[in-house]
Specification:
Distance between the termini: 21 Å
Structural class: alpha+beta
Shape: elongated
Largest sheet: 2 strands, antiparallel
Oligomer: single chain
Helix content: 10-25%
Length: 77
Amino acid sequence: MHPPARAFFSFPCPFADCDGQFDLTAPVKAALATGAEVADGALECSGSRARMRSSPQPCGLHLHFTITPEYRPNARA
């Protein structure tokens, strides 16, 4: 990504039969707002998976993340 590009922090669940996603937008915004050097946590996929042709069941996949913001001065002055 280049500096003026928008960043997206929402990713689909890696399971092909899951309709969920992981959205890291809130943790990223919180890390930037507090000036944290490192922020970590976990998210659980809220999607559903159809396993063995049965009715959909909660995915439950966990994502453990670490965010390391890099602060740079604004080049536009």
